[in-house]
Amino acid sequence: MVRLAQWARVLAAGGTGLRAGAWYSVVARTPREVQVVVRGRSVSVPRAAVELRDTPPDQWTVVRPAGQREPYMVCPGCRHRMALPERGVPTARCSRCNQAFAIGGAAARPSGAELKADRRVARRRTSAERRKRPRAAKDRRTKPERRQRTTTW
Q1: 93 DSSP β-pair partners
Q2: What is the CATH number that goes with domain 1-56?
Q3: Domain ranges of the chain
Q4: What distance in Å separates the CA atoms of residue 142 and residue 145, rounded to the nearest whole number?
Q5: Residue 115 three-state SS
Q6: pLDDT digits (tens, 9 = 90+) for 1-20
Q7: How far apart are CA 34 and CA 50, in angstroms?
Q8: Per-residue pLDDT tens digits for 89-134
């Protein structure tokens, strides 16, 4: 009896709708396609587009997307994305699930010659983040003094 591969991940992002580097549990497979569970739903993916394995991942998956995007890591526990650490460390702790895992693959940062200019737009801050940051001294305005109303009857 052939053992069914229980985990799959997309080899190249695009066209499948799945996140690159994230491992998905396999529901069924045929010679042409694999059905994986994504947020409680079954999604069919061409079998040639995925990597299959028998055991769940036990280390960070390093994803190096094509184009201008920086490489990142995907947590094996909760599938959260994190930036690669600056220096070559063997393990990393996930900021979402707080579990530590070994970093898989060649997690070395690219050399200075390989780095390209960052053309991403800065992330918009939430209203809570804007409230936490103090304003610059020149922007502070004092509240106008309220005049006391005196009522005469």
Answers
A1: 100
A2: 2.30.30
A3: 1-56, 58-111
A4: 9
A5: coil
A6: 456 668 988 887 666 778 77
A7: 8
A8: 889 999 999 999 998 764 444 444 444 444 555 567 777 777 765 6
What tokens does 138 get? 């020149």
As a whole number of angstroms, the distance between CA 66 and CA 57 comes to 23
Query: Is the dihedral angle over the CA atoms 90, 93, 99, 104 positive or is it negative?
Result: negative
Identify the helix (H) or strand (E) that includes residue 140: none
Q: What is the pTM of this model?
A: 0.56
- Residue whose token pair is 């010679």: 31
Amino acid identity for residue 3 in this structure: R
Give the pair of three-digit tokens for residue 38: 């994504």
CA–CA distance, 137 with 135 (Å, rounded to integer): 6
Q: Which helix (H) or strand (E) holds 130?
A: helix 127-132
Under 8 Å between Cβ of 101 and 59: yes
